[in-house]
Specification:
By secondary structure, the protein is an alpha/beta fold. The protein is about 35% helix and about 30% strand. The strands form two sheets. Strands 1, 2, 3, 4, 5, 6, 7 and 8 form an eight-stranded mixed beta sheet that branches. Helix 3 crosses helix 4, helix 4 packs across helix 5 and helix 4 crosses helix 6.
Amino acid sequence: MTARTETVSFGDISAACEFTPKKVKNINIRVRQDGRVCVSYPSWMSFFEARAVLLQRSDFVRNALLRLGQSSPAPVSEKLFYHGRELTLDPHWSERPVFSLSGDVLWLGLPEFGSAAAVRCAAESWLSGQCRLELTGLCLGLYPLFNGLFPFPELRFKKMTSRWGSCMPSKNTVTLNTALISVPTECAEYVIVHEFCHFLHPNHSKSFHAEVEKYIPDWRERRKKLNGYTIR
């Protein structure tokens, strides 16, 4: 799918617009910090139809370009940690909040981003959503290893300052630190198995560690790697 660039006028302002057909359901229009307008549109739609939709939204694009010229864009040097990787935040104007991860760059399409704090708040909101989604998926994937020895627990997610997770067998709950989304997946898996094993051994006895090793033979290496990260 080939992108096409064309200069388009939005009232008294002109801008270079990049039209890219993609496997998406709707048109997405965003204004980059360098003043370029990026338009992603469904592959079944023609370039001319996409251009017509863009012109229908001229007011949005013009206002975004004006605001971009009047304000200092949020710095792209802001960092965020995700699965042990350091992401660069790349904010742009967009009609609605849109997030896209490409390599180690998190693209944020935001209706408003007047400050670095606003950008980071939006990025952390995205990270929180990923945390619940991905950690729940890991728990569902690891639970079958235990062959129904205990009921699937209620999962809770909480920002904690001194531990990566906790377990309350009497209430059938496991609480996971939201910071686990920032560490490598194998470290998060270790924490989940660790907490699941507490349903079988509510202590840190030799039997408990033997249980953990049954499911994760390299748990010591994973724990050592996890200890290299600071709980944020």
